[in-house]
Every structure is written in structure tokens, then in C-alpha cells.
Amino acid sequence: MVGIPILIIVLIVIYPTIWMFYHAFHDTDMMGLFRRDWQGVGFQNFETVLTSERFQNSLWHLAIYLTFGACLQVVLGTALALILYEAVKTGWVRVLLLIIMVLPMMLPPSITGILWRFLLQASNGAVNHILLSVGILEGTERIDWFSVDLSLWSLVIADTWQWTALPLLIVFSGRVSLPPAVYEAAKVDGASSWQVLRRLTLPMLREIIAIAFILRFMDAYKFVDKVYVMTSGGPAQSSELPVYIAFQTGIREFQVGLAAGYAIIIFAGAAIIITLFLKYLKRVMRNVGVVD
Amino acid sequence: MTTNAMATGQSNYRIIRYIVLAFLVIWLVFTLFPLYFAIITALKPVDEINRMVPTFWPETFRFDNFAGIFADPGSLKSLIDSIIIASANTALSLVLGTLAGYALARYLRGALGENLAFFILSQRMFPPVAILIPIFFLFDETPWGTDSYITLVLLYLVFNLPLATWLMMVFFRDAPKELEEAAYLDGYTPFRAFFKVTLPLVVPGMISVAMLCWIFAWNEYLFANLLTGTTVKTFPVHIPTFVAGSQTLWNFVMAFSLVAMLPPVLLFIVLRRYMVRGLSLGVVKG
Amino acid sequence: MAGLVLDEICKGWDFPVLDRLSLTVEEGEFFVIVGPSGIGKTTLLRCIAGLERLDAGRVIIGGQDVTAVKPYRRGVAMTFESYALYPHLTVFENIASPLRARRQPKEDIARQVESVAKLLKIDHLLDRRPHEVSGGQKQRTALGRTLVAKPEIFLLDEPISHLDAKIRHELRRQFHTLEDLRRVATLYVTHDYAEALSLGDRIGVMGEGGLVQIGSPREVFEKPADLFAARVLGQPSINEFSAEVEGSDGALSISVENGAIRFPISGPPASVLGDHSDRGISVGMRPQHLSVVRDGASSANGHPTVEGTVDVHEALGATGVLIATVGEQPLTVITSPEDHYASGEPVKIALEPENFLYFDRQSGRNLMLGQS
């Protein structure tokens, strides 16, 4: 019974992976691919990738993106979830607010990208005009959200808007499931709110927060859809992420061999991160009884 | 502690409380504003949208924008295409994931099964870009080509099947094996026991899996854009066609987007209690 | 029609749980297996039901070898310790399950389920789901599910252990009166010795690897085959000490734990134990064979006595349980509930050596068996 699904995964995951490995060591381009004509070039593709400034810059972008796109979202989501739990005790209000805050996560990322591109337009975008009306901008001053300096940050804003919901929802549900008796005991002991947060809530939610973080981190690592929709990596490659470059090189610039080189390096990075996470994930899964 | 210090502690506590509440309110505004603006944009005429100063309440309401988007027959077709692909993929993911999840939960409980389960889960995490290009050529050589329903239905299995398999495994492990054994002793064959006893127990899990798979397939853009676009066109691929010359028809884009947002949003609101378990890989019991 | 024969069955994982276990349960017999938790009682039932594959041996039901027969064709019904009720079905549907599995007509099913439900006094609950009924009602539902199946063999795994005392008593009475159970072979597993003694036509004491002793409840209680069987049956549990036989033919005495307790023996035990003066023995004293001698009397009805101090005394309604220390050894004694003892109070305890059990220290074997 596992056979068929495994077979499908092998077909559409393993086969392409092997294909990528093969072409990463060849000078394949699109025409060559159709004519079945390519030459082995050893590690040249990898060398090109690793030494290119474009790739090095994209790594820097990725670091920023992972910090703010994943880590910050988990921190924000956790904070919001706990605030929502503590501040709102009325059942239906809680549900309503939770639905509102989780809503962006349900939206197609492409639409989210389009929406934020629209909101962040320089001349007549809603965001700039709000900043005007509250006095942060004056006269003809406008923030060019899609400039070299800011386009990456625009992506981060749109992504935070959409994905803070994930850790928020997970942590909130985790908080709801914590045993009330522990909190009553803490109250009897006279613990302050801060102590309760530090010594009870956060330790008990640690594994759940970790799951949220792993999920967000891996999704952020392979993040590419909004880049494509909002900035196309520009201007001047200022918002390019490694995954986007691989995509661009292979599909738009037809350098299949080089793109494979990118893909393999990204793949290796993912493999390392996943291996690290998987160890922890296994432990968490054992603790909660999902696996033996 | 003196009364004075107590008072300071009290007022400090108050201030923190207000700051925290303010943060919640600001976040709600931050969350809602883009949605609000999308809605009012969908109701504005084009010339009002293109003004140098945007209006935050439409001066004229154009409800016919929603009718306008369907003037292009491609709009409706793209939504239908999306529904077909998302539903077919969900059905396939669910059936295969249920079988594989059951096998993993019941028959492969050793180290081998566990490693297999985590391998399947890790497939969910790998960046799809690594397989994008070969997939293109792989499907290009099939008789139906890249631009077809089959392509996307099968392709989305790459994302949805590992998730479905993993989650169904988790749900089956939650369903006590003893119930199945009781069914054997009642005289049910394993096959009948599976459908009479085991499957009904994991229905909530299946709802969760189906919902996540469907929303993912519905929302996917990158592969759909790359591989399809002529005979088959899902709605995200259709959105960029709302242009007049070099000008984007934002009212239509937003109106169409709102329509396209509706299915996942409604699914979430109606079935949200099934959601958390699936979203957290089965760890958080919502 | 259908007796159950187990022929040298073996089952183990990292270690053997059942080691060449043989047992015959006659048609109409109510056989109770009693043993400590985790000894493999449930495994034994699962092997009979076919839920576990045997490593070796044969299971024979009604003269037919069913070792290779799948559980759903064995005609065996079993209640699980956890009840294993289908949570998504009503009580009615749960009970009807075996009949539906055989695709019987709807009216037949309804009639049979209702009559079983009436018998078990759960006919007013048929529309509820398992989570809406109490523990005792769950157990009745599980029992109903097995009764309605009219199996050849009943397997009951700790059916009343997790219920509260009152319902336990009621269900125990019901087991005595259920005609259906009395017609076929029933194997009933429990860790509670009182259940075993009360219900069993015969009982089997299960130890590591298999059955240590099989016999009528009286037999097993009064003449346990070994120290283990003596330990399993009886509450409060038996006092056991290592001891030596001292003296010679005419005047034998037993010295317990290097002389902490010493008493003379005569009669049947003396004749057997005389041969063991060179080897160590174990003495088992059931608490009911010890009694407290109240002030003044130097000996109670000619019984030897020992002196000790009171540790704890629990008044339990019908009886009292006194734990005293005699020469550094703890001793459990049954007392009258009206009596009161303070901790640290000196106390004199009368012994009934003729009722004590004497075991070989190495093998644990009961030395009195085959003798008296």
C-alpha cells in the first residue's frame, strides 16, 4: 500500500533530482537539451555559481529574509497568540479575531503579492498616502518601496502580513490546550504574570513554537512566488533569492546546466537544514507521541 | 514593599497592558487594511483608482465590476480549471495518502517505517525549484504534454502527497488498533473492518488533509504559470490578463482576486477546527 | 460441541511470554486465569483469538485445529480490557456489529440486540454513544457485543477490574447467572484473586511463561503449588519468610529469619519437614492464620505466640489489618475491626503453624503437597 505513493514520489521527486545532478556537471542549455547535445564540464557550473557576485548577494538577501521573514514572524505570531489568549476572554470575540488574523494565510500568495504591489505603489499607493496623512511624509515626498534599497523589505512586509498567521494559529491552539490546573497552582503560589510567562507558558509551548519555526523556516527557504509576482528579483537584482535565481537561470535564461548547479547547491543547503531540523523534529514527535 | 512602590508596580503593569493591547489593535488594523482596500478598489471605477491621491472610500460604487470580470469567458474558465485541478489532486492525494498512511501506521512500525515516514515528510520541505526544470522536460515528453490538467494534478502530488501520507499516518496511529481487532473478532475481514471501523475514525483527519491539499493546489501559482497557460489556465495565471494596454485594470484584478479568495477563506471559516492539527504536522491537537 | 484445547503454545518477543502452555477448557466451563499484571494473560487471550500469531503449538476449538485460522473465522468472542467500543457507533450498533458482519436481516438483528440489551439492563441506552455512558455500561455493551455473537469460546479480559466496587459486585453476580456464558467455554482473565475465587469453576494461576497451577478455587487457595501461587491469591497478601527447621524427631521447631520468630511444629507438617532439617525452607503465613492475643492470656487456645510492636492498624469495616514488627520482620495480621491499636503499642500474636504453608526455599515448591 505504501508502494504506489512511494513510486509516485520516486518518479516525480527522485528522477528530477538525479536529472539535476547529471546536468549540473554539464554545459547543457535549452537548445542542447532538444538536440541531446551536451558536454561534461566537471565542477565548472558550481564554481561559476559560488564565485558569482549575484549568488553571494542573494545569500545575503536570504539571510535577511530568513531573519525577518521566518524568525520575526514566529516571534510576532507567538506574542500575538499569547496576547489574544490573555486579553480576550469572550469566546466569540476570540474566534472572530483569530479568524481575522489567520485570514491572510489562506489567500493565494500570488494574489497577496499583487495586492501589496498595489498598496506599495510609489505615487498613488495607499501606504504612502497613509504615511502622508499621518505626517510621516510631506508634500511631494514619496517612499519608493520598489527601489534597490527597499524592494527586499517590501517582500518581507508582504510575507509577514501573510505568514505571521501560521505561528499565531499554532501557538494559540497550543496555548488553549495547556492544562489550566498548572496555572491555578501558579496563582496559588503567587507567581507574577511575567514569571508565569517565563517559567510556565513558554517552556510548555517550546516544542510547539519549534514546530511552527521549522515549518516557517523551510517554507521561507524555498520562498519564491512573491518575489516573482512583486519584484521579479529587481530592481538590479536587489531582491533576488537563490531559489529565484535558479528559477530565472533555468527557465528565462535557458542555461539549464548552470541552473542545475544552483539547484544542487540549494538542494544541499536544504538537505543540511532539514537533517538538523529532523533530529529535533523526531524528538518532538516522540514527546507528543506522534511516532514511537 | 511600600504603598508607593506598590502603586508604581500597579501603574507599570497598567502601562504594559495598554501597550500590549495597542499592539494587538495595530496588528488587526495592519491585517484588515489591505483586505479592506482590496474590497473598495474592486468597487471603484478605473479612473478613480488611477487618481494621484487614492480615495479611502469609493466616491462612486461600481458593483458591476464583479460582472465585468466575467465578460472575459477566460475568467470563469480559469476558476473552473482551478477547481478541477485542486479537486482532482485532493482526491488523489487523499486516497494515496490514506493507503500509505495506514500502511505506515499499522504495518511499518519499526525503524524502517519511521525512517520512511520522516523521508516522506522531508520531501515536503525541499525547495521545489530543484525539480522544476526537469519536471518541465519530463512532462514535455508525455503524450499529453505540459499544458494539461494531468500535469498539474500529478505535479501537486509532490507537495500534497508527502503531507497527506504523514498526516494520515498520524491520524491512523491515533485510532486504537484494538478497535480494528474487535472488528475482526466480530467477524469482519480486514478489508471490511478498515471501511467499517478504522476509516470512520479518521474522518476528521481526512477533512483536515483534504482541506490543506485543496487550498494548496488552489493557491499554487509558480508551476501553473510555467507549465500551463493555453489549454489549461488556473486563476492565478489569469490575473495578469486584466490589462488595457500598459495599464493594469486594478478594479478587475481586485474583484477577481476577491472571488478567487473566497473558496479557501470559506473553507477555513467553516472547517477551521480541523485545520490546526494538519498545519502543525499533527503535533497540535486543535 | 466446543471445548478449547491449547497444545504447548509458545509466544514471545524479546523473551518468552508463553512457554509451552497447555490447557483444556471444557464446554460449559468458566475458567479463570489469575496472575499479576504484565505476566502475559492478555497475550494468551490474543493468541487464542488469533490476534497474535503463535511461535509454536496448536489452538484447538471444538476439535478443530484453528491455529492457522484468521480471527474473523474462529468463532471466538473477546472483550478487551479497554472495552474497544466503536466510538462512532451507538450502543445498539456496537452490539449489532457481529450480526451485521454476518449480514443478518435487519429485524433479526434488532430482536437479538434488544434481548441481549434487556438481559444486561442497558436497553434504555441503545441510542447513546459510548462516550455518553458510564464505565459499567460500557462494559455491559462490550459484553453484549460478545454475547450476541453466540461464539463457541468467550474470552473476557479483565472485564470488571476498572469499575468501581458496587458495579463490580453487580457484574460479578451477573457473570454467575448469565446462561449464555455457562453453556460455552469461557476464559476469564483477571489480576484480582477475589474475582477468580468467586467466579471460576476452575482457576489457573499464571506465572512467567505459563500456568503454575490449575485447580478448583479452594484447592488452589488452600494448597498452592508454590510460593508464587500463594502470593497471587489472597488479600492482604501472604507473609513469607525464609526459615530453618531445628531440633530432632520428637521436638521440631521452625526458626524464622534467624530466630526472629520461633515456634514448635507437630502433626502433618512435622512429619514432612523432619526431612528438611538440613535444607532451608520458606514459610508462608496467611494473615487470617495469625491473630492478636488480648491482654492477660499467655497463649490462645494452645497456639504459640510471638511478641511485637504495632506499626499501623487499618480498620476496614468488616475486618482490620494490623501490621506489626516482630524482631525486625513485618507481619500482617487480620484483626477484628472493633479493636484499636496505637502505633508503637506492644502486641502479642498467636500463630497457627498447622495452617501455615511450607515451601522449599530453592524451588519454591509446596512441601505439603502429595503428603496430607
Main sheet attributes: strand count, strand direction, barrel closure of chain A: none
Proportion of beta-strand residues of chain A = under 5%
The radius of gyration over CA of chain A amounts to 23 Å
Number of strands of chain A: 0
Overall pLDDT of chain B, averaged?
86
For the sheet with most strands of chain B, the description reads: 2 strands, antiparallel
Ordered list of secondary-structure elements with their pairings:
The complex is a heterotrimer of chains A (about 290), B (about 290) and C (about 375).
Chain A: H1 3-24, H2 30-35, H3 44-51, H4 53-87, H5 91-106, H6 109-119, H7 126-133, H8 151-163, H9 165-176, H10 180-188, H11 193-221, H12 225-231, H13 242-252, H14 256-287
Helix pairs in contact in A: 1-14, 3-14, 4-8, 4-9, 4-11, 5-9, 6-8, 6-12, 8-12, 9-11, 11-14, 13-14
Chain B: H1 3-43, H2 46-49, H3 65-68, H4 73-106, H5 111-125, H6 129-140, H7 149-155, H8 157-174, H9 177-186, H10 190-201, H11 203-219, H12 222-227, H13 235-238, E1 243-244, E2 247-248, H14 250-271, H15 275-279
Helix pairs in contact in B: 1-14, 4-7, 4-8, 4-11, 5-8, 8-11, 9-10, 11-14
Chain C: E1 4-12, E2 16-25, E3 30-34, H1 41-49, E4 56-61, E5 64-65, E6 76-79, H2 91-101, H3 106-119, H4 135-148, E7 153-157, H5 165-177, H6 179-183, E8 185-190, H7 193-199, E9 202-207, E10 210-215, H8 217-222, H9 227-232, E11 239-248, E12 251-256, E13 261-265, H10 267-273, E14 281-285, E15 290-293, E16 305-315, E17 320-326, E18 329-335, E19 346-351, E20 357-360
Parallel strand pairs in C: 3-8, 3-9, 6-7, 7-8
Antiparallel strand pairs in C: 1-2, 1-4, 4-5, 9-10, 11-12, 11-14, 12-13, 14-20, 15-19, 16-17, 16-19, 17-18
Helix pairs in contact in C: 2-3, 2-4, 3-4
What does this structure look like?
The complex is a heterotrimer of chains A (292), B (286) and C (372). With 292 residues, chain A is mainly α. Helices cover 75% and strands 0% of the residues of chain A. Chain A contains 14 helices and no strands. The longest helix of chain A is centred in the N-terminal third of the chain and has 35 residues, at 53-87. The two termini of chain A are 21 Å apart. In chain A, 43% of the residues are buried. With 286 residues, chain B is mainly alpha-helical. Chain B is built from 15 helices and 2 strands. Chain B has helices at residues 3-43, 46-49, 65-68, 73-106, 111-125, 129-140, 149-155, 157-174, 177-186, 190-201, 203-219, 222-227, 235-238, 250-271, 275-279; strands at 243-244, 247-248. Chain B has a two-stranded antiparallel sheet with strand order 1-2. The longest helix of chain B has 41 residues, at 3-43. The radius of gyration of chain B is 25 Å and the shape is globular. Chain C is of the alpha+beta class and 372 residues long. In chain C, 25% of the residues lie in helices and 33% in strands. Chain C is built from 10 helices and 20 strands. In chain C, the strands form 4 sheets. Chain C has a 6-stranded mixed β-sheet with strand order 6-7-8-3-9-10, sandwiched between helices. In chain C, strands 13-12-11-14-20 form a 5-stranded antiparallel β-sheet. In chain C, α2 (91-101) packs parallel to α4 (135-148). Chains in contact: A-B, B-C.
